[in-house]
Specification:
The protein has about 110 residues and is an alpha+beta fold. It contains three helices and four strands; from the N terminus they run E-H-E-E-H-H-E. It has a four-stranded antiparallel β-sheet with strand order 2-3-1-4, with helices on one face.
Length: about 110
Amino acid sequence: MAGYAIAHLHDVDPGPGIVEYLERIDATLEPYGGRFIIHGAKPDVREGDWSGDLIVIEFPDLQAAQAWYGSAAYREIIPLRADNSRGVLLLIDGVDRDHRATDVLA
């Protein structure tokens, strides 16, 4: 089952640090099979309040996401993001294709 890196970022400074981060992140994803599935889209908010940017990167599994986050190549560019934005980044398992809402009750 797929694993995901999900970031909810606020107050992103679009200066040179973020530009360099964006220029370098794709190369860090490639060895781990990571690909952006949400990045830079403006949400159509139907309920509640929303601010910031949502980024979702899909990996073949959670172990690949963890390996990417812990890799020297990614650790090297984390300060470029962290020093120029604030937010939350998490790694999480996806669900199987046949998942149903009630599965969480088991």
